[in-house]
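HUMAN: I'm a chemist; might I ask for a sequence paired with its structure tokens?

ASSISTANT:
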Amino acid sequence: MNWSVFEGLLSGVNKYSTAFGRIWLSLVFIFRLLVYVVAAERVWSDDHKDFDCNTLQPGCTNVCFDHFFPVSHIRLWALQLILVTCPSLLVIMHVAYREAKAQRLHEAGGDGCRHIYANPGKKRGGLWWTYLLSLIFKAGVDAVFLYIFYRFYRNYTLPRLVKCELLPCPNVVDCFISRPTEKNIFTLFMVVTTCVCIVLSLVEAAYLIGKRCQECLQAGEGQSRR
């Protein structure tokens, strides 16, 4: 997968983000996307090949591997990165829609036409809601994937030895996972960075709501003075 496409698209959201959003985007690129592309894919590339069981029974190793690894870490992370970055693309699309709408009105009315958006990228009206919902969705996606990883891989760790007694295995067989310590380190690193991203998204959402409430209060005070 060409992850540079996501980098190019998401880099445009920086100018529409708050400081918290820029920190979130930097974490996604540096500590999640780059780690995934540079290191994590290679760490999990030998998952099935080096999953050894002490039996020669045909099909036993495949069945045991599928039982203990129902979904690969690396594919779950890829899906998580795709879903968690989609809301940022929606923000860019909303801004592009505003700019196109303003351009059409300008062409129809000429220079004397009233500007419908003084600044299409300013978070007001529908764009404010789009941005806020994108933050909630990003935090929700990360939280759901943390739960999925926890259910599939208890405590986010991989054991060195697993015992399997599924058919067609003739009896209880011992299976050994390749490089469990290295994989556990990467898994915990991804879990920690995901938790930090969730906190940043929630803090940014609280900041937006607090700022809007403050503006509404100031506007109300100004009207009451008049």
Q: What stands out?
A: The mean pLDDT is 79. The chain has one domain: 3-110+121-210.
